[in-house]
Every structure is written in structure tokens, then in C-alpha cells.
Amino acid sequence: MLIRKPSDIPSSEITSKSDYMDRRKFMTAAAAVGVAALGADRLKNIASPREAVHATEKLATVPSKYSTTGVTPTSFEDITTYNNFYEFGTGKTDPSHNAWRLKTSPWSVKVEGEVKSKKEFDIDALMKMHPLEERVYRHRCVEAWSMVIPWIGYSFSEFIKQCEPLSSARYVQFLSLDDPKEEPWIYSVNLDWPYSEGLRMDEAMNPLTLFTFGLYGQTLPNQDGAPVRIVLPWKYGFKSAKSLVKIRFVKKQPRTTWNESAPNEYGFYSNVNPNVDHPRWSQKYERVIGAPFWKARQPTLMFNGYGDQVASMYAGMDLRKNF
Ligand SMILES: Nc1nc2c(c(=O)[nH]1)N[C@H]1C(S)=C(S)[C@@H](COP(=O)(O)O)O[C@H]1N2
Ligand SMILES: [Mo]
């Protein structure tokens, strides 16, 4: 996404001045702690923080009938070094350098809102809730680049069943971790934290909606949203929130981070649609990350190629208005 550089943003816009000054003090302290930790323990065993982020566990999977065929997966290297994860910086390589700070164990996901009773699931229990499938999906960022990623997970609908939502639940909200100790970059990025995304209940129930724990045969590298994220292959990448700590079943359409940041540019639905351009660029084509130059520019497909499975959910809707 394109947003203003931190230096362009007056501090008053982020928060009150005194708050801001306190935060600055805190950041300096946090940076010092980070350097100390790096200097002492970490460098003893690993060559670089990058390596720590790549330290993942193997996962056993079963094949999936929802996997996309006839596509070539992007390399592991590109998938793990070309990321959007603004909690760890806005540059494409920032998350691969900075996300080693994310502590993914212990980890749990809270469930609240319109459910029979509040729940909290430990990450291990979540990963065992249903057999893990390998699903190759196209991944299309609103910035007009794309990848193909062999994810690991199961349909989010399996998890919804365990949550016992009430009939009053019409939307699902996804909330990412916002921990300034592990993600001090959140102070310099002009977005409202925590990162929040949302889906209509039928979209959340669609079998393509993947509760995701891994990629390329192993647990998610931190920069890709460890230990658990959501993946929606027919929507622009920003709908696929990373490092989830809370899932809310709600009555009304929830706040979503990019929509509240620039409502004329990023809608609630954000279905991939080559016929509706972003106000600042075309969505007709995409740059394929890692592809040889003669394949690097390809036309974007309606619903990113998943129309057969998802188009009926939007029947009768004006997709220009509901972008
Ligand atoms: N919490 C959080 N989730 C996020 C983002 C983010 O900045 N923070 N970026 C989004 C965007 S714009 C994209 S394209 C995808 C990128 O996922 P990937 O880096 O695993 O390819 O994550 C999405 N989920
Ligand atoms: Mo994106």
C-alpha cells in the first residue's frame, strides 16, 4: 500500500504530543533492549535474525480438493522476503529482517462477541482441530503484484463450528497482534492498530477461506503471519490478516484497517476485480513476483480466478459500489 512516510506525518496526527514524547522515550528504550538481546543470546546460535525467522517446524498435510492446479508456486525465498506486514516496517524486506522479534509461543486466539460463550484456543489445539491440507492459492496484492503460495491449513468454517456462533452473528472480525514491545514499528506507521479485517458470515463460511498455519510444508515463517492467519484467495491480500489473536463474531460490519485509512481506495469487500481500478493505478494487470520477464506481466482475473466458487455470494451486488 502507499502511505505517507512517517516523516511526513505531524506527530499530532498520530497521537497527542505528550503521549508521543513518552512513546519516543519508550522506543529508544525498546531499541536498546532489542540490541542487547541480539548481541547476547541470539547471535551465539544463529548466523542472522533472518535465519531465526526461517526457523520453522515441518507439518504433515493431506491433499486438498481446493488446491489451484496449473500454476507454478513462487519460490520460498520470494514468499519470505517480499512481504507486507506493517507491524514490522513498511518496506518489502523489512518483515524478513524484523519479524524475528515476534514471539509465537505461547500463543492463543480469543473468540468473543455473538457466540454461545467466550472461548480461548491454544495454538496447538487449533492446529489439531482438523486435518491440515496443502492448498496452492493465487495471492493478489492490491498493489498489482501477485504470487502463488502453497499454504497449509483447513477451511475456516471448521473453526467457526467450534465457536458456536449465534444467529445474530452476521460478520466476523479478525484482529492481529499489536504489541509495541515486539512490533515497535506500529508507532511510526500511520494506521489504527490493531490491524483489523472483516468478512460477511457467508464469506467466512466459504470453503476457500483458509485458516492458515503454514506454507511450503512447514509452519508459517514469522514474516508471513505466524502462528496463524487467514487467507482469502479471491480478495486483495490486505484482507488476509496475519498473526491473529482475536476473532469476533459481530452484528455489524466491523472496522477494517485499510478502509478506515483511505475509504475511497480500499473498500470493505476488496474482491479482486480487473474492471474496477484503484483510483491511483490500474488493476487490469499484475506483476508476477519472481517470474522470468516474458511471464512477469499477466492479466488479472475476476475474483483472482476463483469466480466459480465465490461469485454467487455477490450476485445482484454492484461491484463498482461495493469494491
Ligand atoms: N497484521 C497484518 N496483516 C496483513 C498485513 C499487515 O500489514 N499486517 N498486510 C496485508 C497485505 S497488504 C498483504 S498483500 C498480505 C501479504 O501476505 P504475505 O506477506 O504473506 O504475502 O498480508 C496482509 N495481512
Ligand atoms: Mo497487499
Cα gyration radius (Å): 19 Å
Number of strands: 13
Shape: globular
Q: Architecture of the largest domain, according to CATH?
A: Alpha-Beta Complex
Total domains: 2
- What percentage of residues falls in helices of 4 or more residues? 10-25%
What does the main sheet amount to? 8 strands, mixed
* SSE sequence, one letter per element: HHHEHHEEHEEHEEHEEEEHEEH
CATH class of the largest domain: Alpha Beta
Judged by helices, strands and strand pairing, the structural class is: alpha+beta
Assigned CATH superfamily of the largest domain: Oxidoreductase, molybdopterin-binding domain
Mean pLDDT comes to 88
CATH topological fold name of the largest domain? Sulfite Oxidase, Chain A, domain 2
- Ligands (ions, cofactors included): ligand MTE, molybdenum atom
Beta-strand portion reads 15-25%
Number of H/I helices: 10
Summarize this entry quickly:
With 323 residues, the protein is of the alpha+beta class. It has ten helices and 13 strands.
Question: How would you portray this structure in words?
Answer:
The protein is of the alpha+beta class. The protein folds into two domains: 16-55, no CATH class; 58-314, Oxidoreductase, molybdopterin-binding domain (Sulfite Oxidase, Chain A, domain 2, Alpha-Beta Complex), CATH 3.90.420.10. Helix content is 24%, strand content 21%. It contains ten helices and 13 strands. The protein has helices at 11-14, 17-45, 49-54, 76-81, 94-98, 123-128, 156-163, 201-205, 257-261, 307-310, and strands at residues 62-63, 108-113, 119-122, 133-140, 145-155, 171-176, 196-200, 210-215, 218-219, 229-231, 244-250, 285-288, 297-299. The strands form two sheets. Strands 1, 4, 5, 8, 9, 10, 12 and 13 form an eight-stranded mixed sheet that branches. Strands 3-2-11-6-7 form a five-stranded mixed sheet. The longest helix is centred in the N-terminal third of the chain and has 29 residues, at 17-45. Bound molecules: the ligand Nc1nc2c(c(=O)[nH]1)N[C@H]1C(S)=C(S)[C@@H](COP(=O)(O)O)O[C@H]1N2 and molybdenum atom (MO).
